[in-house]
Amino acid sequence: MVSYRSRVSIAIIVLYVPVFFTAIFLATRHGLGLNSGWICLIIFAIIRMLYSSFQLATIHQPTDVGLYIGAAVMSGVGLGPLVLAAVGMLIRVRNSIHKNYETVIVVKHLHLIQAVTIVGVILALAGGIKAGEDFKHSGHFNTLPLTKIAISLFVVAYSAVLTVAALTAFNVPHIEHGERRLLLAIGLSLPFLFVRLIYSCCVSFANDSRFSLISGSVSIMLAMGVIQEFIVVMIFLTMGLTLRVILKEEATSEDKAMKSKVGHQGSALKRFPLFRMIEQQRRRNHQAWYGEEETDDVEMHERLT
Fold first, then answer.
1. Alpha-carbon span 156 to 114, nearest angstrom
2. Is the Cα dihedral 149, 152, 158, 161 positive or negative?
3. What are the DSSP calls for 55-68, one per residue?
4. Angle (nearest 5°) at CA 29 between 27 and 30
């Protein structure tokens, strides 16, 4: 007879196979980069299918410890890709605002959140593998400090996403109409991500057998983990299917506008004596090294126009 845990694993595979192909479609439609967020949903779907595959394989190989460890590791790293997907969407919202309005949100801040989350995923993987090695010898799957640090980083990343989303909400009038649904999707997903984060904290910090990744309560895992994750994924996919595609020509024109803006700022800086002194010295060095005078990009643009 198929166990409760195995039935849940079968349901996860059935649900995430179409999620996987839908995420691939959206990634090819909107972009494969980390900043787009869709690649993170592809990775998440793979992680969830791997978890279920490991767990179902224990039916025929119940003594294979490696399968239990693999399932536990895949279960522990699932939160990271969802946070990264939300950050990718925030970057697109921020870029939409920045076309006609200066915001306090800098892309570097969002990239920092991405870096923190990626480090958290790496530590969660390392902690899960090390805990698995200990499990082979002791028979107990204990949460190690590496995993606790990883979950702490996820808490920091989630808090940062929540803060950035709240600040962005004040600039809704400056977001393009077609892009506002991104912020709505992030706002709708945050409560479910919060429940999933609480579950991860309970797994890592609560000394309660019900939250064990190997032998814990399936009902708790289903309610606080699986269902919450799937709701977030469906929110992101639904929004992605209705999101407009940014054409290559449009993206190029945006880049040119940004470069022009930077060029005008550079022209303004040249009015300062200190900047002129530095620029003159740099030009002398360039002429001494290369035997020719350097042509400024702004001056060349002025000549051509």
1. 11
2. negative
3. HHHTTT-TT-HHHH
4. 70
